[in-house]
């Protein structure tokens, strides 16, 4: 699957903010020369074949601002790297049982200096976390929305990040694996 990429946008279509119509979003991505663009749900998850578009991140950011009036943080991850992040999930078994209570927090860069002791002190009700260079994995048995750990994450995690629950992350992977190359 050479040159298949996954694009994750942060904070799109959340609580009515940063509204992004998926059809227009797919059209915009195709205008850059990206092939076989597809999206997953209404939160700015896209997959596509990239024939080698130069400066893609900057182009998407500028086009988002011009076309939709906001510029979300974006993460472009090649398929092989995305698979590695998902495969490294230490809570995968719990996510198979309930994929909405296990989250993968994709990091723009390694989160060196993260206060893991302070972050872990926020955990309640069996919550767990594991930090790697590419992602922070969270298991929140009572739910992400009820998690004190998840709520305090932005205070402790000082790098740009975006989270997907395991169920969504795996659905995005399946969509990316189905992208025809070319």
Helix and strand arrangement:
Layout: E1 4-9, H1 22-31, E2 35-40, E3 45-49, H2 56-68, E4 74-78, H3 79-87, H4 92-97, E5 102-107, H5 116-121, E6 128-131, E7 135-139, H6 148-156, E8 161-165, H7 166-177
Antiparallel strand pairs: 1-3, 1-4, 2-3, 5-7, 5-8, 6-7
Helix pairs in contact: 3-7
Q: What would you note in describing this structure?
A:
The protein is an alpha+beta fold and 182 residues long. The chain has 2 domains: 4-81, Alpha-Beta Plaits (2-Layer Sandwich); 83-170, Alpha-Beta Plaits. Helix content is 36%, strand content 23%. It has 7 helices and 8 strands. The chain has helices at 22-31, 56-68, 79-87, 92-97, 116-121, 148-156, 166-177, and strands at residues 4-9, 35-40, 45-49, 74-78, 102-107, 128-131, 135-139, 161-165. The strands form 2 sheets. The protein has a 4-stranded antiparallel beta sheet, sandwiched between helices. A 4-stranded antiparallel beta sheet has the order 6-7-5-8. A hairpin with a 3-residue loop joins strand 6 and strand 7 (135-139). It starts with a strand and ends in a 5-residue tail after the last helix. The mean pLDDT is 92.
